[in-house]
Design brief:
4-stranded mixed beta sheet; about 240 residues; 13 strands; alpha/beta; Zincin-like; about 35% helix; flat
Length: about 240
């Protein structure tokens, strides 16, 4: 079987941006259409902006009305965020990160200031081993995921006689994967940090959407048939999701 080309996407499509009036403040409001969403969702993002998810049969007008009805809730969340701003976790020599489901320690190589970092059998060149290593190592992990995840998708798709058009590896903020009606599977690069059985569950989960484009009882029967231990994988994700950010 010949694998189609896969794409490593670093950018997301720019959504329409409006503003939400919250206690005389204009908060940037991104309007996102999600055909798989069942209801309107208003979310506060780490940068203090708002995101409104509009379901398949929803409208921008109704979505804005929903957001305006929830401005008091949003204002309370904004106060909490400003009191305790979310700061990206920094990675230094000695920091432990998840890699293939195991906590591994970042170690310095032998080349001094402009040297290398080692972890879990990987070796990454960095400009300064004493600086925050997060950005450089995340890029390495993303490239690793882009090399490993698409072949796994096509392997499992072939095993279950399913046809996948292409695979993309992305940086989704709130989901591990997605499946389009056209047969495109998109996966979160952070799956490279999860154990193989969790990675395989997410892949199989998205593949089963090629049979059932929903989360009905029938869909979950399909998932259970191909991944009997899927609940253990979901439990692992719940327990470790904070380490995958």
């Amino acid at each position: 079987m010949t694998w189609p080309n896969f794409i490593l996407k670093r950018t997301r499509p720019e959504p329409d941006t409006n503003f939400l009036n919250v206690h005389e403040q204009q908060i940037p409001l991104a309007l996102i259409r999600n055909h798989r969403a069942r209801r309107y969702l208003l979310r506060l993002l780490p940068d203090g902006s708002a995101r409104l998810t509009i379901p398949r049969r929803g409208s921008v007008i109704e979505g804005r009305r929903f957001a305006e009805r929830n401005t008091e809730w949003f204002a309370k969340q904004l106060v909490k965020l400003r009191a305790n701003p979310i700061k990206p976790r920094q990675w230094f020599i000695g920091t432990e990160i998840l890699f293939r489901g195991e906590l591994v320690r970042l170690e310095a190589g032998m080349n001094g200031e402009a040297g290398t970092v080692k972890f879990g059998g990987q070796m990454v060149t960095v400009p300064d081993v004493k600086s925050d290593l997060r950005s450089r190592l995340m890029k390495h992990l993303w490239k690793l995921a882009a090399a490993e995840l698409p072949p796994k998708v096509f392997e499992l798709a072939a095993a279950h006689q399913l046809s996948v058009r292409r695979v993309t590896v992305r940086n989704q903020r709130s989901r591990w994967g997605s499946c389009s009606r056209r047969g495109t599977i998109s996966l979160n690069w952070k799956l490279i940090q999860a154990p193989p059985f969790v990675r395989d569950y997410i892949v199989l989960h998205e593949l089963m959407h090629l049979r059932q484009m929903n989360h009905s009882a029938r869909f979950w029967r399909e998932v259970k048939a191909v991944c009997p231990e899927y609940k253990a994988a979901e439990k692992w994700l719940r327990q470790n999701s904070s380490l995958l950010k």
